Give the backbone structure.
Amino acid sequence: MATFSIGTHLSMFQNLRTSKLPLHGLCTVEPSPFFGSSSGRTRLTGTIPTLLRHNVLARAEDKARDPTSSSFQTQQSPQSQNLTPESGSCDPLCSLDETTSQEFEESYQPKTDSLKAVAILGAAATGAVAINHSWVATNQDLAMALLFVLGYAGIIFEESLAFNKSGVGLVMAVGLWVIRSLGAPSTDIAVSELTHASAEVSEIVFFLLGAMTIVEIIDSHQGFKLVTDNITTRNPRLLLWVIGFVTFFLSAVLDNLTSTIVMVSLLRKLVPPSEYRKILGAVVVISANAGGAWTPIGDVTTTMLWIHGQISTVQTIKGLFVPSAVSLAVPLALMSLTSEVNGKGQNSPNVLASEQIAPRGQLVFSVGLGVLIFVPVFKALTGLPPYMGMLLGLGVLWILTDAIHYGESERQKLKVPQALSRIDTQGILFFLGILLSVGSLEAAGILREIANYLDAHVASTELIASSIGLISAVIDNVPLVAATMGMYDVVSFPQDSEFWQLIAFCAGTGGSMLIIGSAAGVAFMGMEKVDFFWYLRKISGFAFAGYAAGIVAYLALYKLNISLPTLAEVPFLSGS
């Protein structure tokens, strides 16, 4: 389900009232970053790629569409294209959550709404009574495990239950900590544990907030067009490899979700709708997940491991670059042999040439990319946590965009305040809920008990890490990695040990085996309307072959003590 930011801006509406630009054919849904869900934001592509960032235009587009049509390609009259209050499209203060009086009367069901409200209040009251029962305090571990399983089921089946997983995650987190406070020796101990967990979680949340805002600023300036413009080939087999490795390196600097959105949007302009384009989109998913696994900032799971000290920058790049490249090269080689890729070339008009980069877009792209790359350097030079470097980069980019767009009222959407309204806040809150939930299980000692059980019954750490990667194809890899970090510490497995590097690789690339296994896959699924079973039949086998080959490559290199020695010669990264 698509969700939209709520804020509307009168000044922006007034600037667009006289716009004659057509809105049809410009809307795509972007799933929410990092979180394995189809919830997300909506963005315009094509002639005016940033207009749908404002709710006024989104509403106006819906009103202008032919009610009998299900396509965004409906032709509109000139009158319907004018976004004026007189046209009935929208008023300056309207919101996407509002409906017309007629729509409201048709959809309003007071009895049903009342039953829903009573059911939710009843469930909350039942939960409050149950938590205060003496059994909960006596059987803390079992109560917390049951609540975590129940909450996680709500997250997995969010589409069926119509509950957003961010809300479920927050309720679960608070409930688990309430149970922990009842079962702890004293409330002061529980508060101290919560304070410690919140400090660790906040580092990740601040890091993601800064990174997502920087990427959004670059994107609003069409900065990624500098990358995509250089892809000109139409040879099917060559395009397969070019798309794969461009995404691979792009995802290493950005995150896998953003890279997927950028590259799938590019594919729409390079290749007409076809089976071949779906395969290219699947290549983007595999490439984005593989590229995000070998750098600390390429995937949220590697970022979590990096921030908490399980992996370091140089050793991660040295140890995981080759396995990640192998996990991509094997599927590409196998796909190159398929009939869809070996078919005739795909010719399409060069739509990219008609799109113009925003003013000073090249400057913003260069600075934004530079501050992202500078984060590991900042950590090595100062010893401060990575989120401080990310916030420094955001501050620099904020001042830069304010300076270069000073006095340009029509370009307010290119500044940071507007970018902050467009980032995936609900995704950040999901992270907050999941990480706090896992922190409560760690504080209660539950994760340590699970680790002891695995140590006693599964002797091979390689098998444990590989299994986590397989499970991440079905279950979101964020709670999996968070739980693993709680189960094992750097005393059991030192920084940059084989176990932690395998966790980073397997959790990052394992999600490619199913389309629902990663945020990149869900984004591709939503943007290209790809069926789960199509991906399972056509792509999953290739992705599994790459996953297995990558693990074999890592183990071979690790046993032979082979890495990329040239990276160790970079002095300012040696300790990061």
User: Anything to note?
Assistant: The beta strands are 27-31, 40-44. Residues 1-100, 344-354, 566-576 have pLDDT under 50 and may be disordered.
